[in-house]
């Protein structure tokens, strides 16, 4: 292995440094020669900078001493790394004595032998034992269970990526978002066996006489309960609750009332104890919508109607569409100066509709005059006239640039 640079490749002081470092590079191990050579060059440059700061000349003899000290430090570091011997504080006589002895015979008795954990321990006793690595023979209570680690890795690889990400967030104590909570809830219902059983292993006693506890809870809740409510109260997953509910429904001890949304999608049934009065499902009537709109001549949005009638907006849309087709309700489309347009304003038919509040014409004219005629920038218009940037752009884009007179 060739160490150093070709002749003429380095110039100036670096050429002198490379010449002297080459004398000592072959006194270290072959695998360390290249590193030792470059370290020596850097060390010589540092020493030269110190001499120049003091105004002293640095001769080649001094550079030879720098390289010799670097070589001595190399062998000291290697001895400390392999045998734990630090000879920096030893006298010259002690160092000369150690040169004729093995590292284990050091007078300080601080030598240590480093062994690889992958060293193969053979069958020296002839007992027929298979060769084993040294690391497998060391007793350690905190050793990694490789079998469990491999099992966990294989399980994580089979799970969906989103489930794994949610699991890491739960393990780190990071609060989950609403979408993540809903996703993991549905996933646990679809896959109840391997994870929920472990989570609720300490609640096995609570599963005893679960059918009796379900009946007792439904007797107290006369308005009925959903499966999700039962799961929350009993602290049992929905997937494990269904096998107990189905026999009770077949024996007619529990009644399952099916419910439907106005837009057709079925929802979970309402569970009632046998003999309980089935409550009438709350239905939105057209008369209630018309009565509320007649009391509000200024108009009502769909969100306000949903809040006052306590009905979801999706269920309210189907009734409103029919009333609008029959011209009993008027929907006035509103415009917004920024962002997406808001929902329409609803009025009862025959009521005088107030004029929609729009941007003043004078304001738009003043913005266009400042921009096109006076040459103001949008930032200056915002600063001087106190308007929002979106309002300014909207006014500018309405018409083309007027002709200058």
* Backbone CA Rg: 43 Å
Number of strands: 6
Q: Which fold does the CATH topology of the domain at 204-280 refer to?
A: Arc Repressor Mutant, subunit A
Q: How far is the N terminus from the C terminus? A: 86 Å
Approximate strand percentage: 5-15%
What's the CATH H-level superfamily name of the domain at 204-280? Winged helix-like DNA-binding domain superfamily/Winged helix DNA-binding domain
Unreliable residue runs: 194-204, 401-405
Report the CATH C-level class of the domain at 204-280: Mainly Alpha
CATH architecture of the domain at 204-280: Orthogonal Bundle
Strand order of the largest sheet: 1-2
- The secondary-structure class comes to mainly alpha
Topology overview:
Elements: H1 13-25, H2 33-54, H3 60-83, H4 92-99, E1 120-121, E2 132-133, H5 146-158, H6 161-172, H7 178-190, H8 193-199, H9 210-220, H10 227-234, H11 238-250, E3 254-260, E4 266-273, H12 286-294, H13 302-309, H14 313-325, E5 329-332, E6 345-348, H15 361-373, H16 378-385, H17 389-398
Please describe what this structure looks like.
The protein is mainly alpha-helical and 405 residues long. Among the domains are: 49 residues, no CATH class; 77 residues, Orthogonal Bundle (Arc Repressor Mutant, subunit A), CATH 1.10.10.10; 63 residues, Arc Repressor Mutant, subunit A; 38 residues. It is built from 17 helices and six strands. The strands form three sheets. Strands 1-2 form a two-stranded antiparallel ribbon. It has a two-stranded antiparallel sheet with strand order 3-4. A two-stranded antiparallel ribbon has the order 5-6. A hairpin with a 5-residue loop joins strand 3 and strand 4. Helix 1 crosses helix 3 and helix 2 packs across helix 3. The longest helix is centred in the N-terminal third of the chain and has 24 residues. It is flat, with a radius of gyration of 43 Å. The C terminus is likely disordered.
